[in-house]
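Hi team,

Filling in the usual template for the complex we talked about on Friday. All components are listed, including any nucleic acid strands or ligand strings, so the model treats them as one assembly.

SUBMITTER: L.P.
PURPOSE: interface mapping
COMPONENTS: two
RESIDUES: 445
SEQUENCES:
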Amino acid sequence: MISITLNVNDNEYKVEVAPYHSLCDVLRDKLGFTEVKNSCNQGECGACTVLVDGKPVSSCLMLAAQAEGRKIVTIRGLSKNGELHPLQKKFIEYGAVQCGYCTPGMILAAKSLLDEDPNPSEDEVRIAISGNICRCTGYQQIVEAIMAAAAEK
Amino acid sequence: MSNTKTLFRPSEYFKPTSVAEAVKLLEQYDEKGWLIAGGTDLLVEKDPQVEVLIDIAGLGLDYVKSDSQGVRIGATTTFANIAASPILQKNPYNILVQAASQIGTPQIRNVATIGGNICHAVPSADSAPALLILEANLSISSKAGERSIKIADFFKDVRKDALEKGELLTEVQLPTFPARTGTAFLKKGRVAVADLAVVNVAVRITLTADNTCQETNIALGAVAPVPLRAREAEAMLKGKKPGEEFLEKVAAQAAEEIKPISDVRSSAEYRKTLSRVLVERALKEAIARAQA
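RESULT (copied from the run log):
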């Protein structure tokens, strides 16, 4: 086991991990961030997306040890003082949440896009969420919610 | 429960901060030591033979630079950084941007590295055809020193490359090209995102002032044990001013030079047909860019 410190949502956590533990497993099982969803475990579905230094990554394909010294953000880190992030509000308003399993990853991928480009085209939005699969196939509402959040910025 | 011998259970993890330190660890752990950069192949395959992980993300090899000799790309440069590099937006280097933008998902492109893609040496590696037609040179470090190898000599077989024990790929170098050079990269997967290529194709053409083909490189991936150049098809174009019918013949010749297999992604027959179609399209695109 190795001892590492992870910075998650601006808090530091000391945690013992094995070299083979994925960031996803450590966030969920050791630190209780169960909003990070684990689905395909192969980097194809995007459910386990977190932001690492502002960029979306599949936490199932990153070792916890690789994430040491970097800033990790889960969906829980987006609301401030009990108020939802504008993207979260738009997802609710536009009915972009169905079963909800893809939602944390979708919103984090969208946040990274809007942080970089506040006025994306619809194509750019679709590319930004192309690594996130929604099995309820609610893509249209998701794209509309992201475009609406962008328009309000 | 499954047999523990089948599980991915490395017991040690090192994060060296210099190439010298990394190659020392590589030598020390010999066959037990595995390099990890982005880790996106390693953590999908979870090879039970991996005992010691040597993380090379902290070696300072994430960069794209240019000088009078051409372009230099650090081995741990992510595909997201390649796709966003101002240096690589220009023809003919932008073929790497096209290839990088079609690899995996945005999440994978944020961590997967060009060095990992090359050294994993799978037939479908999307960067490989692009680097083959750009005639990239690879810098390799080991405890014994440095050497360099042409990308055309690097791929040996499925998942086998020219790296010897204790060696680490540090840099990819691209030469300069004459004016009126155009490139094109085309990939076809079963779906647009997150799938490996059924076929990927890269083309580079340099034209003279009167539109004669001076030099042509054609490379294909996922159609043989290694990514390869279609050298007879290339030779057909030398000194020609090709019309559409001739380009069809060149593409048909390229499709004769591959050795595709049937697998879950495609039949061998479909790969052959697709190769012909993609080579023809890529030739037309590259010619248009060379003339632009």
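MY TAKE: The radius of gyration of chain B is 19 Å. The first helix of chain B runs from residue 19 to 29.

Thanks, L.
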